[in-house]
Design the sequence.
């Protein structure tokens, strides 16, 4: 499952970078402007945004790949990156549903979101040496552990409280 997520994020990284690069070229060639922004600034910012998001998705794909290779849960920055990419896909899915009304894009974002959450949940608690029972520090009892349901054979007698003195 981590392998699938790594491949999907890898393909998505190049898709997002390529799409933003293409939109930057379109904005540049058509001399487009939005609210008076310089068309060259729009073109360059679209290309830079595509490269940044592409690298972000590549880094997340690398984390998923390391999880798949090591067969171990992500820790630290890797876990934070996977949580953040889940949030990004949730937001992009909501945007795809609300603004674009493209059901295919929405389903893709939700599937990737589900894959990321599944990866985070399945690798959350794997049994390992840290889950083993702690070693006892003191000397071991030769009779073994006591059963709480069976009382001791020679229980200590319970002494009654002292009688009140007449004063």
Sequence:
């Amino acid at each position: 499952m981590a392998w699938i997520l790594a491949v999907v994020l890898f393909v998505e990284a190049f898709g997002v970078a390529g799409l933003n690069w293409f939109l930057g070229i379109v904005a540049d060639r058509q001399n487009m402007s939005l609210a008076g922004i310089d068309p060259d600034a729009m073109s360059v910012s679209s290309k830079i945004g595509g490269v940044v998001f592409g690298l972000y998705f590549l880094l997340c794909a690398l984390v998923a790949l390391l999880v798949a290779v090591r067969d171990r849960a992500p820790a630290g920055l890797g876990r934070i990156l996977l949580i953040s990419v889940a949030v990004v896909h949730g937001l992009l899915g909501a945007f795809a549903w609300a603004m674009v009304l493209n059901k295919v894009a929405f389903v893709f974002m939700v599937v990737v979101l589900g894959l990321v959450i599944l990866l985070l949940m399945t690798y959350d608690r794997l049994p390992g040496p840290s889950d083993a029972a702690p070693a006892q520090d003191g000397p071991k009892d030769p009779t073994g552990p006591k059963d709480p349901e069976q009382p001791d054979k020679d229980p200590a007698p319970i002494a009654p409280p002292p009688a009140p003195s007449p004063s």
Remarks:
- The mean pLDDT is 81.
- The radius of gyration is 31 Å.
